[in-house]
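#struct-help
A.M.: can someone run this one for me? Single chain, 398 residues.
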Amino acid sequence: MRIREIKTYTPRVPATGGRHQLMVKVETDEGLYGWGESGLTSRELAVLGAIKHFSELLIGRDPLHTGTIWQELYRSNYFEGGRVLTAAISAIDIALHDLKGKALNVPVYQLLGGRQRAHVPLFATTSAGTLPELLDQAKLLLDGGWRVIRTGMWQGLPGGRTAAGEPIFEPRESVGTTAAYLSRLREAVGPDVVLGIDYHHRLSVAEAASFCQRMPAGTLDFLEEPIRDESPEAYVSLRTMTDVPFAIGEEFSSKWAFLPFVEQGLTQFARVDVCNVGGLTEAMKVAGWCEAHYIDLMPHNPLGAICSAATAHLCTAVPNLAWMEIRESPTEQLGFYDRDLFPVQCQLDGPRLIVSDRPGLGVEVDETLAARESVEVVTASAPRRRFLRRNDGSITNA
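D.P.: on it. Structure tokens below:
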């Protein structure tokens, strides 16, 4: 069996303002195929270029040699690695695992060591902008059986924008109100519900420390991405100022990026993203490394049904899992798992995801619809630029 063609599709998700889903299909000369997905949202044009480069190395290859192919793609030039290349490698690697599972007539989790759990536990995200909305949405989730809830930060006054229409975000203005909201939320849900917040790396070390210090002990079970990750030393400093567990890693593009955060105990939950880190091949190495340091995975899963399925197979096969992110719940309906585009996919059962026993990932794509909904990314790249401004006009973290 040999790889015959690499196809790409970039359908848009209307509910998210036209966000693309970059999907890859690897076809073989024997009629088998596999689907993968790339995670570098808003940089799809660059990833498409990398996939085109890699296609020249892949045509005619045996698709079952996933480990060899990963190494060759990563080291295929003097300038190895980087987020663009590993996002492309991720999509290809996931597709090759899907294809290999079909070739061997087993679900992907069997390729990763076998099933370790009957279902994948999930956490839900609230979309509330005010305290009453937050409390109402938390009750809605609790009534539906959800016991792990993630919130977002308070964004500031609605409609706050620059003259050019760019949104304004002042970190210091967010910290106090967000901390007060979370303290009230903990009072409302009681001690047994897991609560976390994603600050989307929008704080400085001092702001993150101040945020944590404004809440009673035990309010938060995890704080996700409070600051940017380029400097592990900054996380070392922040770690001395708070005892709230950190959840870090959704932007990491290799096991080497995880290295200081795992080895120095800077994260308590690994937010590994199979569509960014290098696919299932690399994600399994990160998982084993985390297991040796008693760190649980809390995988990032912000994309479509292919990403969700690949992440779920990873979660099924590893022993060290906390919860998996899902973007469809009573408080979120983003349209990422469109049933027309993905007529076969993993099934939600409240706060659980049921992983298919079908060969491969257990996902099928309506290729005709994917082609029809694909929009040339170059025409949509400029509107997808995301800037956040401060009141003084300077740029802050998006």
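A.M.: thanks! The radius of gyration is 21 Å.
D.P.: also worth noting: The first strand starts at residue 3 and ends at 9.
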